[in-house]
Amino acid sequence: MTIVASGSVAGFFREVVEEAIKSQRVPANDGTTSYVVSLLADYAKPDPQAEAALDRPLTLLLDEALHTPGTSERFQRLRMLGDGVLYTTGFFGDHFEARGVDQKYVVGIGVTAYHAASTLLGPGAEDRSAPRLDVLGELASTFERWVNVLSEVADATIGRPTGDSRGLLKAYERWLKTGSSKLAEELTHHGLVPMRHAKGVQ
Asked: Could you tell me which of 170, 24, 172 has the C-alpha nearest to residue 90?
């Protein structure tokens, strides 16, 4: 992967997301790609309120979102929950695993949130014969594939700034958890040769 200077966070993420989409062979329309790029750009700016929200049980968040009065507020809460689950599962899937939470359960929450938000988009939202761009519906139906895209984006973004020892350590720790070939390549570029053997990592 070549590093290209980008004038914006969104520009940076567009390049990395498009590469990950090709690598993962995810059929994605431009609207969904742009949505995911925007989501990543938004999450690149720390938001303590968004982070705190995902510390609560996901089932509770989903139930609250589904029963929020007012269609507009319900839509926003469902969309934000879907976004949060997609982002955290793609970038920090090991966080849920460390808490003993099954990834399929977490994915199910994200799928349900996006699907419910998609159905609130207005009359005809359920009519799949009507030609329209349904970004949230696409994300719901291909959620796990988008988690893989975001996981690859995480590997690429963590692997890029590995010039200092802290960056190398972060990349190595993520490689230990994911076995990412992109991270292994970046580590090798910096003189580290990660190897997996039957007895573990050397």
From this structure: 24
Q: What is the pLDDT of residue 171?
A: 61
- Supply the pTM of this predicted model: 0.75
Structure tokens at 84: 């949060």
In the structure, how many helices (H) and strands (E) does the chain have?
10, 2
Angle at 80 between CA 18 and CA 70, to 5 degrees: 140
d(CA 10, CA 14): 6
The residue among 134, 138, 125, 120 whose CA lies nearest residue 75 is: 120
pLDDT at 80 (0 to 100):
93
The single-letter code of the amino acid at 54 is L
| β-bridge mates for residue 201, sequence order | 196
Q: At what angle do helices 143-159 and 30-44 cross, to 10 degrees?
A: 50
pLDDT 10s digits, 120-177: 986 554 555 554 569 999 999 999 999 999 998 988 877 555 455 556 566 666 666 6
> Which whole-number Å values give the CA distances from 31 to 3, 103, 135, in the listed order?
25, 26, 6
Rounded Cα distance between 114 and 77, Å, is: 10
142: its two tokens: 């291909």
